[in-house]
Design brief:
Radius of gyration: 18 Å
Shape: globular
Largest sheet: none
Oligomer: single chain
Structural class: mainly alpha
Number of strands: 0
Order of helices and strands: HHHHHHHHH
């Protein structure tokens, strides 16, 4: 049976598409440092939901999604860039305090929503999935093989979830060794990086594009 093989291929795709450092990785790291494993993982979980959505479109051959992204790339990139910049400014201006147990932690639901929106509005994600899936060749299920496509998507979800579990666990462990000054500078670096990502999106869309 080829289904286990398709699952392993999807596992590799999920890890490969989640690991590169980008806005959602920075957001998840910042949340894990601020509030621990679950907060960071929830931000990653939002990205996994978006990844699963786009992976399903790519695996089941829904080309209309690619056409929609191509036709509306300017709007999608503008919204995505604005969201990344706003989130970066919020992190940059925040004043975290790890030792105060009474200070409210970021909402886990908002973490999932942030991860989902930041990923689903990134046209590079859907185009990346379409490019990767299109290049798999014999490693991809045949058209009409819905069981194979489902196993491929399941592998992507498992690979992505595995990455966010490992990242959030590692960062939350490091959190125990940090004080407020460390976290303040990490927040400043993360916020500045997110703003830079957002500005790069605008430059690519309106200046270099």
């Amino acid at each position: 049976m080829q289904e286990p093989f398709f699952f392993l291929v999807g596992l590799g795709v999920g890890l490969a598409t989640s690991a590169p450092v980008g806005p959602i990785n920075i957001a998840a790291i910042q949340r894990a440092l601020r509030s621990g494993f679950l907060a960071g993982f929830c931000a990653g979980l939002g990205a996994v939901l978006a990844d699963g959505l786009y992976a399903s479109f790519a695996a089941f051959g829904v080309t209309a999604v690619s056409d929609f992204v191509d036709e509306n790339s300017a709007i999608i990139q503008t919204v995505g860039g604005l969201l990344v910049i706003v989130f970066g400014i919020r992190i940059l201006l925040s004043r975290p305090h790890l030792e105060n147990d009474e200070e409210p932690s970021p909402s886990l639901v908002s973490g999932i929503a942030t991860g989902f929106v930041m990923t689903v509005t990134n046209p590079g994600v859907v185009l990346g999935f379409l490019a990767i899936f299109g290049s798999l060749g014999k490693w991809a299920p045949d058209p009409g093989d819905y069981v194979g496509a489902a196993m491929l998507v399941a592998g992507v979800l498992t690979g992505a979830l595995s990455w966010w579990v490992m990242l959030s666990a590692l960062v939350s462990r490091l959190r125990l060794r940090m004080n407020d000054t460390w976290l303040l500078w990490i927040n400043r670096g993360a916020g500045a990086a997110l703003i830079a990502f957002g500005v790069a999106i605008f430059l690519h869309q309106y200046v270099l594009g």
